[in-house]
Each structure stands twice: as C-alpha cells, then as structure tokens.
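Write out this protein's structure.
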Amino acid sequence: MRLQRAYLIGILKFLSRSLNYCLLLPDIRGGYRTHGRLQEIRDQALLRTLVEKRDEIVAKARQTLGEGSLSGGTEGDEADQASHASQAALAWRLLDKDRKLLKEIEHALAKFETGEFGYCEGTGKPIDKRRLEIRPWTRYSVDYKSELERQKKQRRSGSGTKIDTLF
C-alpha cells in the first residue's frame, strides 16, 4: 500500500512538472505540500536569495578585514585612539552579527540539500511561504517562534530575584 502511494505521488509530481501545474499532495509530516513547477520556481528563487545574501556577507567581511578597521590604531592623540578603538569595537560587533547570520544561511542551504527546507524545526510543519520570502534562513514558523519567545520571557522574569522575597 505504501509503495503504491509513493508510486502514485511520483507520477503526479512528474505530471505536474511536465504540464506546469501546481498540485497539493499529502505530506508525510502532516498537512499538504505544494508540488510542481510553481514550487520549484519559488524554491529556486529562495535558494538564489540565500546564496546572494551569503556572498554579500562574505564580501563585506573581506572588505572589513582588508581595511584594517579592526585594529584600535595607536597613532594620534588620546581622542584619536579612543575614536579608532570605538570604530574597531563597532566593526567587531557587526562582524559577529554577520557571522551569526552566515551560520543561519549555511544551515538553510544544508536543509535545501536534505529536502528539509521550508519546514519548522520545532513542529515539522511547513513554514508560511511569506515568512520564507521575507527571511529565507528562518528555522521556525511564526507560531512556534512566538511560543519560544514567550517561554524565554517567562524564564527571564521567573529567574530574577524579587525584592519582596528578600525581606
């Protein structure tokens, strides 16, 4: 039975690609997943966006490292040195932010390879296509991410020491 279903789904996918139709087929993770030419075009556009963003980040990091703006600078008076140190600290923070984003993009590209791209890592359900278009490296659906943030906020507010309990 399972083999017949897989065979039938394979035939439907082939027909949808060759006829440029878009089909909604049942997905093993629950719900439905879009198959067909439109899905392939959307996925290729997202893949292109991820690769372009990755290349942009790498080029910006190379430029920053090549400028030498990460060193504090020892020439000039104290005000100049403080200004150079401030600029270097900002450059390091921006590089660290870009490093984290690059890590997320690489993770999304790896998910493309395994066929898991577009699925929430928390629930396994498909992520809304609008969310993927805005932020293609996202790992979670909007609902699951808001739940994570709510839990994080509760942990933060619950772990703090209240003054009332001290007296």
